[in-house]
């Protein structure tokens, strides 16, 4: 079995995203949120609304996040940079189409039950 | 065409997401470890960083910003419906420490992978996590043809605090990678709340 490349590749502009981030976010470059890469995103509806104008990438996020996915997973599946997905999420949250739980807000370590679940879960993999 | 009522009622309960960082020098096996224990092959995500600069061959004079893309490989382990673990390989290049700062926020802990043939390669990672006060363990990835050093020799060479666990591993082996993660989680649990991670702020 061949493993993927050992190290992240340092892409330059020439190898940048297929779609320019600005094009996807309607010109907005800066997200209002600073969601953690593991902030979980879950759609609040089973399909994108047909009656409301919504960017194709935002519709994709609603489809993708029928089960909770981390921001980084959403970005990886859409082949978009993290910052671009944060901007797209701003719009989706404003419209109430997704909910996000951001562990950035939880400053404390998990409680013992989480540690136990993690250790047992890893052992049972 | 009929509209389907696609609104869900009420707020769903989202799982808890736990993040663990996999650090170490170039080619030490970070992505190999992520891949050996994750439920899918490693995914890649990118952060685009803007920096002010003048494009030399920019003839329009409009674009005065250059961007750099930092790629991170990561994997997912679904522990249960309530708990998901994410493993993030840290980008190797030292000039993007603020990406490390961002990754460190909310992280449970870190595994520093070491290669005894190039032990110095993991100095920056060890130094970073000590300063960030993020609990970490050192896992010596056993490459073939590498001289076997004792774990005490590694500990001494890295000048580690006595409570930092050092262990051997084979990042290609799922069982070995699991053992590394369990060792880290147990270490973090022991450390308790006495050490609170914080960005180093380079």
UniProtKB/TrEMBL annotation, chain A:
Record-linked InterPro entries: DUF742 (IPR007995)
Superkingdom in the source lineage: Bacteria
Pfam families: DUF742
PANTHER family listed in its UniProt record: DUF742 DOMAIN-CONTAINING PROTEIN
Name the UniProt record assigns to this protein: DUF742 domain-containing protein
Source organism: Micromonospora andamanensis
TrEMBL record, chain B:
Family under the similarity heading: Belongs to the GPN-loop GTPase family.
Ranges in coiled-coil conformation: none
Phylogenetic classification of the source organism: Bacteria, Bacillati, Actinomycetota, Actinomycetes, Micromonosporales
Molecular function via GO: ATP binding
Keyword annotations: ATP-binding, GTP-binding, Hydrolase, Nucleotide-binding
Superkingdom classification of source: Bacteria
CDD domains to which the protein is assigned, alphabetical: Ras_like_GTPase
Pfam family membership, one: ATP_bind_1
InterPro entries: Gliding_Motility_GTPase, Gpn, P-loop_NTPase
Name of the protein this chain belongs to: ATP-binding protein
Keyword Nucleus: no
């Amino acid at each position: 079995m061949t493993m993927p490349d050992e190290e992240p590749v340092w892409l330059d502009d020439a190898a940048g995203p297929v779609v320019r981030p600005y094009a996807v976010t309607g010109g907005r470059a800066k997200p209002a949120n600073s969601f953690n890469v593991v902030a979980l995103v879950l759609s609040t509806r089973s399909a994108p609304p047909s009656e409301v104008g919504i960017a194709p990438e935002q519709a994709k996020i609603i489809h993708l996040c029928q089960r909770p996915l981390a921001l980084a997973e959403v970005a990886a599946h859409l082949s978009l940079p993290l910052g671009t997905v944060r901007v797209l999420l701003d719009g989706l949250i404003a419209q109430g189409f997704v909910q996000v739980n951001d562990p950035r807000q939880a400053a404390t370590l998990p409680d013992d039950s989480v540690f136990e679940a993690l250790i047992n879960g890893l052992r049972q993999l | 065409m009929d509209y389907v009522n696609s609104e869900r009622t009420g707020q769903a309960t989202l799982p808890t997401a736990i993040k663990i960082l996999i650090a170490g020098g170039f080619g030490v096996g970070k992505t190999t470890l992520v891949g050996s224990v994750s439920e899918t092959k490693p995914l890649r995500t990118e952060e685009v960083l803007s920096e002010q600069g003048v494009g030399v061959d920019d003839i329009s004079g409009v674009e005065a910003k250059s961007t750099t893309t930092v790629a991170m490989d990561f994997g997912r382990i679904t522990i249960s419906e309530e708990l998901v673990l994410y493993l993030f390989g840290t980008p190797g290049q030292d000039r993007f420490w603020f990406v490390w700062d961002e990754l460190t926020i909310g992280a449970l802990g870190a595994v520093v992978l070491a290669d005894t043939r190039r032990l110095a390669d993991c100095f920056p990672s060890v130094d970073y996590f000590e300063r960030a006060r993020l609990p970490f363990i050192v896992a010596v990835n056993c490459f073939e043809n590498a001289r076997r050093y004792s774990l005490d020799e590694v500990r001494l060479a890295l000048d580690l605090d006595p409570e930092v666990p050092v262990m051997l591993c084979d990042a290609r082996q799922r069982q070995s990678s699991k053992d590394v993660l369990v060792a880290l989680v147990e270490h973090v649990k022991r450390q308790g709340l006495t050490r609170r991670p914080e960005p180093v702020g380079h």
